[in-house]
Amino acid sequence: MKKLFLALLVLFFVPALSSAQSGMLNKLKNKVKQRIDQRTDEGMDKGLDKVEGSVKENGKDKAEEAEDAQDTESTPKAKSAETAAAAPGLKSYSRYDFVPGDQIVYAEDFEQDVVGEFPLKWFTNNRGETVTIEGYPNKWMRMYHTSRFVSPALKKLPDNFTLEFDAIIHFDLGENEKGYVLPTFTFQLLDLLPSDANARSFLQNQDALVNAEFGIYPGVKGESTITFKSEEKGADYMTSGQKDVANLDSYTGKLFHVAVWVQKERVRCWINGDKVYDIPQAIPAKTNFNRLAFSIPSYIVKEEKVGMYVSNIKVAQGAPDMRNKLITEGKWVTSGILFDVNSDKIKPESYGVIKEIATVLKENPTVKVKVVGHTDADGDAAKNLDLSKRRSASVKAMLESEFKIEASRMETDGLGETKPVADNTTKEGKLQNRRVEFIKL
């Protein structure tokens, strides 16, 4: 029985750890064998408990279930052995007033990259790798300590743009380690000269024309901090700030969503719907941000116990003018209402967009609208059509239940993938096509 259980565990872990080195696999086999020999019936740690449960559940493991599932849009194709907790609920975003730009200029979910390899389009001074995380769609870039990462060059961003991404930070530290190990995670907006040589140079000396940096310090005992600083090369201009966030440590081990809105010199930042910064004179005038960067500057003694991941990066330009477009032009389109993969469940970071459209409808009580859902062209066309109809119905339901917009003022429809507005072969185009339209009736 022991040998059979050991074989099942190894078979489950092999595909999930395709990114690991062979030495790690041998180490895992030895660990599993030791645990089976020592604790046959009970006392397994959480990771092994989860694997055992997945093997036994309905006589089929999760890897097999994933193979049986049919893809629609961007269904995840792999799972890793690492698991994070669920994202926060919709109500936690009730004060969220972030509205993303209406023209997507850059998107990255690392789907084109090979698990276990460093993302091809990015730059680093040390190491990182593409991984999958059980329970979450898409692939993720794992970042290791004392490493910096720079994105490919972006289209020169205008005065008004937004940045969003998902991140996961987890650490499994013993009580004797928590006193001196403090993982640090930073993300930056960079104004660099356009060549890749300048991106590589920044990795070594962090030399940029303008560097706007946010630091996240998720303390392990409630002592959490978010910092901000902006520096201009060759000038005395510098803005800095520090804010203690009592609940930041509760984000560890969970997906959290970061949003930044730049409007000329003004910078605002939200984490999981909470506004942590709103600085009117944060960056120099006429700054031309054109790259993103992430870094793990802190030295972590036991890096295998700490994971830092980023995915679902989106940069969009333009300030949405929904009042004018809906009331005057008769139509407003947004890619800022997001849903779970293959689902009509609205993601909490969509709250600010739906709240804004609800405000417009309240200010114009005689206006009626049709809510129309659209998808990209991935997956089965008939399923996408059904999905788009269900998603538009979810938006209507939220407007009615959360914002008290009368149901009689709203119709719904879905057109699936039949009316693309952008190229379905690019990530940016797919995001633009996964949209919701509000049409004045």
Description:
By secondary structure, the chain is α+β, with helices and mostly antiparallel strands. The radius of gyration is 23 Å and the shape is globular. The protein is 25% helix and 27% strand. The chain has three domains: 2-67, no CATH class; 90-317, Sandwich (Jelly Rolls), CATH 2.60.120.200; 322-440, OmpA-like domain (60s Ribosomal Protein L30, Chain: A, 2-Layer Sandwich), CATH 3.30.1330. Residues 1-85 have low confidence and may be disordered. The longest helix is centred in the C-terminal third of the chain and has 23 residues, at 381-403. 37% of the residues are buried. α1 runs antiparallel to α2 (22-38) and α1 crosses α3 (46-56). The protein has helices at residues 2-16, 22-38, 46-56, 62-68, 196-205, 322-328, 351-363, 381-403, 427-433, and strands spanning 103-108, 123-124, 128-131, 140-143, 147-150, 160-171, 185-191, 210-217, 225-232, 238-244, 255-263, 266-271, 274-279, 291-296, 306-317, 331-334, 369-373, 410-414, 436-440. The strands form three sheets. Strands 1, 3, 4, 6, 11, 12, 13 and 15 form an eight-stranded antiparallel sheet that branches.
